[in-house]
Amino acid sequence: MTPTDTPPLATLAAPPPPPSTAPGSDFAVLSRRIVGAGLLRRRPGYYAARIGGVAVLYAAGWTAFAVLGHSWWQLLIAAGLGVMFAQVALVAHDLAHRQVFRLRRPSETAGRIAGNLGVGMSYGWWQDKHTRHHANPNHEDLDPDVDPYVFVWSRGQAERVGGLARFIGARQAFWFFPLLTLEGFNLHFAGARAVFRRGSAIKLRGLEGVLLCVHVAVYLAALLLVLTPWQALAFLAVHQMVFGVYMGCTFAPNHKGMPTITGADERPDFLRRQVLTSRNVRGGLLLEVVLGGLNHQIEHHLFPSMPTPHLRRARVIVRAYCAELGIAYTEAGLIASYAQALRHLHDAGAPLRVRTA
After folding, report:
1. What's the pLDDT tens digit per position in 73-129?
2. Where are the transmembrane segments (predicted)?
3. Which 3-state string (H, E, C) describes the chain?
4. Whole-structure pTM value
């Protein structure tokens, strides 16, 4: 198997290779190499420039919206702001992982400003969901990102699924990108539902609710004051659809099409659990900017608090270490990663095609 091949499902259930002869677990050995290379050090200058640049472009988009006024050219502004909303969400992602600030309080404060106020997406809801994903990526029972609510991620899920996923699953590879146009609406709705649900465990739920309401009120007021009703509706649709597609295309290459895990017996150790279920996307600095550094998904999952600009350097160390241990390290180009994800979706839905044949 070459380093860029997708490991088969059986890889996760197979006995792990012999552990390293160095003291500690296999991951502990890797961690010492990463720390020794200084790759967990904070990068305040990088984040000051990145957050400042995103904030300027975000403000510039809304300024152009206000200046342009009644015009169908506003749909171009809507598309641009959809991109900027995704960039703000990627900044909130780094804040949630404490890549920017070491302490919890400033990380959460900045995260709520970016997520709830800037994007209209609950920071607390997303952080809880994303933390569970990081702990058990692609685990069918523990990872909320492979919940078969709309799509099925394995043939086993397809055998027992019902509802919407049963209807879509047979041809889900064809539905995947069209349905991403609704992902922006889903992120807003799911977060709001979690915040306003009675008994929700989200911290500072009242504050999150207020920030979400302020975002929605200002957003809708701006659209209705500047645009005609039909223009406002079209703006909202284009804006949220671009935002949803961007977010979906950012996260889809990372784990979709990689092995899924079921049950407790199949759960490998931390190093293999993160590496074997993740895929890196090859590309240059432009791709890193577009994907917020998440093209280095393996390194990000192994060291979630590592600042984004260090992930590329960490890749060299992690890939070499995986080669030492005989652990498959998967990389693909951007288009190839989407193709692998779509092929996996098509294969996972095979039992549903048999039923409907």
Report:
1. 999 999 999 999 999 999 999 999 999 999 999 999 999 999 999 999 999 999 999
2. 47-69, 75-96, 207-227
3. CCCCCCCCCHHHHCCCCCCCCCCCCHHHHHHHHHHHCCCCCCCHHHHHHHHHHHHHHHHHHHHHHHHHCCCCCHHHHHHHHHHHHHHHHHHHHHHHCCCCCCCHHHHHHHHHHHHHHHHCCCHHHHHHHHHHHHHCCCECCCCHHHCCCCCCCCHHHHHHCCHHHHHHHCCHHHHHHHHHCCHHHHHHHHHHHHHHCCCCCCCCHHHHHHHHHHHHHHHHHHHHHHCCHHHHHHHHHHHHHHHHHHHHHHHHHHHCCCCCECCCCCCCCHHHHHHHCCCEECCCHHHHHHCCCCCCHHHHHHCCCCCHHHHHHHHHHHHHHHHHHCCCCCEECHHHHHHHHHHHHHHHCHHHHHHHC
4. 0.89
